[in-house]
Amino acid sequence: MDAPLRAAMDFPILSVIVLLPAVGGLMVLALPRRRGELVLPVALALSLITLGAACWLLASFETGVAGFQFEEQVIWYEPWGVSYHLGVDGISLLMVLLTAFLFPIALLASTSITTRVRGYFASMLFLEAGILGVFVALDLLVFFAFWEVMLVPMYFIIGIWGGERRIYAALKFFLFTALGSALMLAGILALALTAGDQLGRPTFDFVELLGVDLGRAAQFWLFGAFALSFGIKVPVFPLHTWLPDAHVEAPTAGSVILAGVLLKMGAYGLIRFNLTLFPEATVDLVPLLAVLAVIGIIYGAVVATVQKDIKRLVAYSSVSHLGFVVLGIFALTSQGLQGGVIQMVNHGLTTGALFLLVGMIYERRHTRQIADYGGLATVMPLFAGAFLFVSLASIGLPPLNGFVGEFLVLLGSYLSLPGYAVAASLGVVLAAVYLLWAYQRMFTGPITVEANRGLADLGFREVALLAPIVALVLFLGIFPKPALDRVEPAVQGILDRIEMTTDYQVPQFGIEADLPEAEARP
Amino acid sequence: MFDYHALLPEFILGATLLVVLGVDLLVAPRRRWLAGAAGIVGLLAAGVPLLTLAGVGGTREMFAGSYVVDDFALVVKGLFLVAGAIVLLASMSYLRGDRYYEGEYYFLILASIAGAVVMASARDLITMFIGLELVSAPAFLLAGWRKGDLRSNEASLKFFLIGVLSSAVLLFGMSLVYGTTGESTFTRIAGATAAVSGESAFVLGVLFTLVGFGFKIAAVPFHFWAPDTYQGAPLPVAAYLSVGSKGAGVVGLLTICYSAFAGARDVWGPALWVLAALTMTVGNLTALRQSNVVRLLGYSSVAHAGFILVPFAMAAAFEGPALEEAFFGSLTYLLVYAFMNLGAFAAVIAIAERTGSREIDDWAGLARYSPTLATLLGVFFFSLAGIPPLAGWFAKFVMFKAVLGDPGNAWGVSLAVIAAVNAVIALFFYARVLKAAFMDPAPESLPEGAPLSRPLAAALVITLAVTLAAGFYPQLLAFFGEAARGLALP
Predict the structure, then answer these.
(1) Among A64, A70, B313, B371, fewest CB within 10 Å belongs to which?
(2) Looking at CA atoms only, how far is residue B407 from chain A in angstroms?
């Protein structure tokens, strides 16, 4: 490592990335009430600086190296072995980038917020700080603190600036998440105390906990506590009932962040904690999680198909897509896990874009009913094009990004769980049904409702919002290698650990799973 | 015999009591706040010898071991002095409102705090009982301070009857313990426990003592007086009851359980398991249905008493470090709870003055016309709910950690699960108040309220500072818990 890079490593870049949005939130709150016009520029500037810092992180991240980089560690509460420990690997790097990328777009898409503007933008920035903290925390207590911190601004964003049933949705979101996190807190404590028995002192440090040998029974309990909490967030069927309400009632930017980033926290938690800390339980519980994932894929898609409200349709499509992510994760193959991670990013981009588009049409017509539209393509060709493009990406049409993720997930799960993979592929077909059918009803044919005749096409700001997403969708679809290269070592590390601690063998192509590896290799 | 240094805080408090009465006598009625100011100065002055005692260090025993000044006593005394000062600050603007018996009010609060300070050092049954009575008797009067108000009368009468009943029960329990062991000093009771641990009279004595303290800390099923009393009493008095008086009960329970009854852990451990589970659950579930903020805080403080009891519950199964951890858990919870609950009450006092109402529905849209007060309310309520980075999360955490001291113990795990579920229920009702304040539309005509007075603002600033600082830097309060944990070692 050359000298400048080493100096750069000492710079607490991760803390800066987490703190920047929080500072921005405080700055927004400190603005005088009369200078309302400054709120958006200040908030946007801080989130763009955060994006810049995240890009710098990407540039100086060493590809092909397993383990955590940019680690920072400061003792926080010594008697319990709690330290402020941050670090990123390839998986969290992508999540940080996705978060930092989506927030400026979400902020810029919030111009329709006219009441209590300062509170709104401050909440959004605090939310960003909390989410970024979740993705970089390597101490379980710090992780938990960020996990909880994130809850409060989101509660207010849905509850104050949301739709008609916002208060119900906000409370439901709040309580579901809080229930999960209470269980996780108990799990974290039990984990730290069990570790304390072995090490002679309790520790909440993720890296240290990897070295602790948990009993088989303890692994199952702890897996359950963590998985329930993360499963609510993902959401895994049947814990998904909060999702349609929260997504539909949240303001546009809130939905973008909910679908784009917040759900990923659950999947990220499953990969980071469940797979690595409780490998035995993971291997044994694969059938259960895979069944739930496949049910989620098909159930979400079927329910999405019959929705009359386009925002609800997109919300249910998330249940289906996140099912793919979970299936990929619990396929426990290199391809499946990589596909799951990539699919997390893809879903963040495409569903975020879909919510943006739904928000744009809602601002014009103040209805989300599919039946109120029809033939929009003639008056809003740009909008129709963007919607079709994003829908196709979401369906998984090559060469758009969705294809890469779904293909890898199906490939990876076919290796270890062929039956589930076949069932899951039905979800791909159904995705085409609900999205293209919605497109057909809303955009093709003659204009059926007179009120739609005068609708304006996308303006400059709206194009500017969508353009970066479209560019990334294309880039990741055609050339996913940079992303995969960064994820691959992290994924391999997780699988190696599972192979080392259990008798599970990761299936490879051309190798029968039950044969010893040495014989099967040519 | 007399260690004047060790007793200096009590002497200063006694002198302050007299000064407050004198000031009340001498100054003109509109300057009666000077009596309160004198009280605050006296409380702070009483804190100075605590610091010098801590600096010198060591344990000082007096009167044949019945009055002990150790690190635990110093920490707890400091807590009561600070809490008392905050309550006085919060009272000053409230009293300005109807301006009668102002001096007497300050006198009674200070007398009650003096009782709590005595309790912190009490290490024998009689001293403890006298301390507890000194805490309670002024509080009976304070609850009925607004004597023209029926609700205040009801509050006082209920509190008085229940208080006297619980004192009788406590005294009965203590007499049984004394009768079976023949000792009244805690250390000697502990020494004599082994011989009598099987006797039903002794077991009954321990249980009656628990019940007596159960009334004081408003543990279910001995809690029913608390919400009525909180609602009827003047708001600062309710704040004092929920922290000072309850805190004194917890301190008494901590000293008596961990030192006098250290050998009877198999009696009080399971009993308090049940009490903790009931208190949390009933307190939280009842709080869900409240429409009055003060009643809601009343039930929430019942529920928090349950959380404080949680670490006690597993004492029978614990030894050595785990036992110490349980002691530390309850005490640290009390320290954190004191500040955030006083802050919550101060915010409620301020908002009640601003809106002229204590009904949740009347607080609708508070954030629109008084964003600062709404934000303060949010901070303290979220802290009570245990959301990081506010101090409450740390309290919850020590509580969970203490009860999970033996991760394989099914009783400990099940109590932790009950506590976790309760933490979620609590979130629900705290969030409901904040929903009204932040999400509901403001009324057409904004209420005409008094501006925030300076003493109340000071109380809010102090509690806010501690709630924020202890959340980010838990050592701030944990340090004191650590210092005091030695009491749990036999």
Answers:
(1) A64
(2) 6
Mean pLDDT of B301-314: 92
Instruction: Give the mean model confidence (pLDDT) for residues B110-132.
Output: 93
Best of A147, A189, A203 to substitute, by most chain B Cβ atoms within 10 angstroms, is A189
In angstroms, rounded to a whole number, what is the distance separating the alpha carbons of residues B305 and B303?
5
Facing residue for A159 by CB, picked from B389, B400, B439: B439
pLDDT tens digits along B63-108: 888 899 989 999 999 999 999 999 999 988 887 766 667 888 899 9
CB B399 within 8 A of CB B333: yes
The predicted pLDDT at position B88 comes to 93
Cβ–Cβ contact B288 with A under 8 A = no
Closest partner residue to B439 among A152, A167, A197, by Cβ? A167
* Count of beta carbons in the 10 Å neighbourhood of residue A502: 14
Q: Which residues contact B457 (CB under 8 A, 6 or more apart)?
A: none
Could B404 and A186 be called an inter-chain contact, meaning their C-beta atoms sit closer than 8 Å? Answer: yes
Q: Would you state the pLDDT for residue A9?
A: 55
Residues on chain B touching A159 (C-beta within 8 angstroms): 435, 438-439
Where residue A12 falls among pLDDT bands split at 50, 70, 90? confident
Interface of B with A in 444-463 (CB under 8 A): none
HSE toward the beta carbon, residue A504, CA cutoff 13 A:
23
Q: What's at A463, amino acid-wise?
A: V
Structure tokens at A136: 């970089």
Residue A8 carries which side chain, given as an amino acid letter? A
Backbone angles phi, psi at B60, to 5 degrees: -115, 120
CB contact under 8 A, B407 and A160: no
- Rounded Cα–Cα distance for residues A423 and A298 (Å): 8
Cis? peptide before A482, omega within 30° of 0: no
Closest residue, chain A, to B385 (C-alpha): A178
Average pLDDT of chain B to the nearest whole number: 89
Distance, in Å, from the CA atom of B95 to the CA atom of B378, rounded to the nearest integer, reads 26
CA distance A391 to chain B (A): 35
Q: Mind giving me the DSSP string for B428-452?
A: HHHHHHHHHHHTSPPPSSPP--PPP
How far is residue B385's CA from residue A400's CA, in Å, rounded to a whole number? 45
Q: For residue A1, what pLDDT is reported?
A: 43
**Can you give the pTM of this predicted structure?**
0.86
Residues B413-471 pLDDT 10s:
889 889 988 988 888 889 889 988 888 888 887 777 777 888 899 999 999 999 999 98
| Residues B237 and B342 sit within 8 Å (Cβ to Cβ) | no
pLDDT the model gives residue B14: 94
| Cβ atoms of residues B116 and B252 within 8 Å | no
Indicate the residue of B371, B389, B431 with minimum beta-carbon distance to A149. Answer: B389
Pure H helices in A138-278: 140-161, 166-199, 206-209, 216-233, 242-249, 252-257, 263-269, 276-277
What is the reported pLDDT for B130?
A: 94
Question: Which SS3 state, helix, strand or coil, does residue A77 take?
Answer: strand
- Residue numbers in B near A127 (CB within 8 A): none
> What letter represents residue B371's amino acid?
P
Going along A248-330, which residue ranges are E strands?
A: none
Decide if B201 touches A, using CB distance below 8 A. Answer: no
